[in-house]
Amino acid sequence: MSSDIQLSLFNESSSNPTELIPTDAKIPIPAGTYNQMSELAQHCNQCQRCELGKTRTHAVVGRGNLNAQIMIVGEAPGQHEDETGLPFVGRSGQLLDKILESVNLTTEEDVYIANINKCRPPNNRVPTPSEMAACLPYLLEQIRLVDPKIILLTGATALKGLTGEKQGITKIRGQWLEWQGRLCMPIFHPSYLLRNPSKEKGSPKWLMWQDIQAVRSKYDEIRQQSA
Ligand code: URA
Questions:
Q1: How far, in Å, are 63, 67, 82, 200, 215 from residue 220 at the CA level?
Q2: Atom 7 of ligand 1, nearest CA residue
Q3: Pick the CATH number of 62-226 from 3.40.50.300, 3.50.50.60, 3.30.530.20, 3.40.470.10
Q4: If pLDDT is split at 50, 70 and 90, which confidence band does 14 have?
């Protein structure tokens, strides 16, 4: 922490250090900072830890069941998400909902959806490494609060942003990885499937169908074990 930040802890108006969290990416967000997703969402909506805070309409925190056993992590909000404050509500989101529906998974019951970055990057560019790093502690807190058994990482940014794994998504998709004691599976990003509509054997959509069935089986297995 820089001495400016340390000194700012002396300010009467910010006697509670957590009030400084949304102001600067150098201020850590330790595990256990948030007791409720609503407190985290409030900080995200005030957040200026990176430049993306300047251009957002809404921070996009999450949607779905806060006690879900499956969490899906995307990249960053697009235009529709920025407008509504909800993740995956544009074309990619509609396809994601259909993929989940195909194996009877719903955001009401089974799934919580969040992103690596909570604010929309201009022109939907990929978030920079420093933007991802500034926002990552919020996602780590979301994971702690939801406590999912399975995390699905959609696309290379989500995979690299959370786990640091640099292998290409085409190579690694469909494989179970262990990250901090949780089962994770990298899967294609739905926007990639929108650009590759073929359903032929071996196509990205066909591979997604294999992956989501594997997720459904693992989920059933986990639920049986805990029943
Ligand atoms: N793409 C993402 O990765 N996340 C969203 O919320 C929307 C589109």
A1: 22, 16, 34, 27, 9
A2: 88
A3: 3.40.470.10
A4: low
